[in-house]
Amino acid sequence: MSVFGWREAPRADFAVLGHPIKHSLSPKMHHAAYDALGLRENYVAIEVIAEEFEQAIDHLIQLGYRGVNVTIPHKTAAFEWADSTCETSQKLQVCNTLRFSDQSGVNTDVPGFLKSLPGHSQRALVLGAGGSARAIVYALSRQGTEVSVWNRTGSRAAELVDQVGLGSRIVSDPAVGGFGLIVNTTSTGLTGDSLPIDWTGAEPGSQLAYDLAYSSGPTSFLSEAASHGLTGMDGRMMLMEQGAFAFEYWFDASAPREAMWEAIR
Ligand code: NDP
């Protein structure tokens, strides 16, 4: 896959912007959607550092781009750039998808995560309190799930619960007993570090361990969950669903989800 610096960006229609961005599966996934529908659009990955976000967006608009997805570290800057945003973006103060024609933005992480869930859980434990945890805690709380949040740095968990928690609570120890869903939103999915999880209450076969990260093999969280009998899933389904919602926002047409899933499966 080609990754471009924004100053060297080719003429194209859509892009994912981030730093770092070279691991992104989004170009492959969006091209699979275009191929499935016989579209000739082009989607590329573009490296943009935080300080150059607005300059990069101006440049891409001049080149004829119609919209972008953004990832770390641009989700807040994207929200600030947009003239109009969806209700979820306003609540979380972040956008991950921009449309240039009307300078608007949406958050497709929240509906993407919810659509990726295989079923409803009464109680969920969310590990982590970073950017993606905000979206996950908000998504689950809004659909009526009782959410507990654990984070290495407790003050960040408190801030998150205060701002977007809708009644969720903080736990000081991440013990899995009693939770139908355990979501790892920490970046240990990428670093390989282990979390101090207490697995003694594990209920094999009736709990889902969900890691937002995706890589070539199971993350340490998913390996540990499997060794305690939990069903696991990684972040590819969420990636596909958030991408499908972005596609629909740009094209005003149904996204070919199966083709997109096949491309990253
Ligand atoms: P952030 O940097 O905003 O947050 C990182 C979180 O990880 C913080 O809560 C941090 O805790 C915690 N953390 C980092 N290292 C450790 C450690 N060694 N032990 C315990 N906790 C740790 O990241 P994001 O929320 O933006 O992203 C997190 C993950 O989610 C990434 O793997 C990313 O790829 C994935 N993701 C996947 C998506 C998808 O579509 N599938 C969408 C968005 C994200 P502390 O506060 O203490 O520093």
Furnish the topology, listing elements before pairings.
Blueprint: E1 3-5, E2 14-18, H1 26-37, E3 43-47, H2 53-62, E4 67-70, H3 75-81, E5 84-85, H4 87-92, E6 97-99, E7 104-106, H5 109-116, E8 123-127, H6 131-142, E9 146-150, H7 154-164, E10 169-170, E11 181-184, H8 188-191, E12 208-211, H9 220-227, E13 231-233, H10 236-251, H11 257-264
Parallel strand pairs: 1-3, 2-3, 2-4, 5-7, 8-9, 8-11, 9-10, 11-12, 12-13
Antiparallel strand pairs: 4-6, 6-7
Helix pairs in contact: 1-11, 5-6, 5-10, 10-11
Bound molecules: NADPH dihydro-nicotinamide-adenine-dinucleotide phosphate.
Residues 72, 109, 128-133, 151-153, 156, 185-190, 193, 195, 212-213, 235, 238-239, 242 line the site of NADPH dihydro-nicotinamide-adenine-dinucleotide phosphate (NDP).
Describe this structure as you would to a colleague:
The protein is of the alpha/beta class and 265 residues long. The chain has 2 domains: 3-107 and 238-264, 3-Layer(aba) Sandwich (Rossmann fold); 111-234, Rossmann fold (3-Layer(aba) Sandwich). It is built from 11 helices and 13 strands. The chain has helices at 26-37, 53-62, 75-81, 87-92, 109-116, 131-142, 154-164, 188-191, 220-227, 236-251, 257-264; strands at residues 3-5, 14-18, 43-47, 67-70, 84-85, 97-99, 104-106, 123-127, 146-150, 169-170, 181-184, 208-211, 231-233. Strands 1-3-2-4-6-7-5 form a 7-stranded mixed β-sheet, with helices on both faces. The longest helix is centred in the last third of the chain and has 16 residues, at 236-251. Bound molecules: NADPH dihydro-nicotinamide-adenine-dinucleotide phosphate (NDP). NADPH dihydro-nicotinamide-adenine-dinucleotide phosphate (NDP) binds next to helix 6, helix 8 and helix 10.
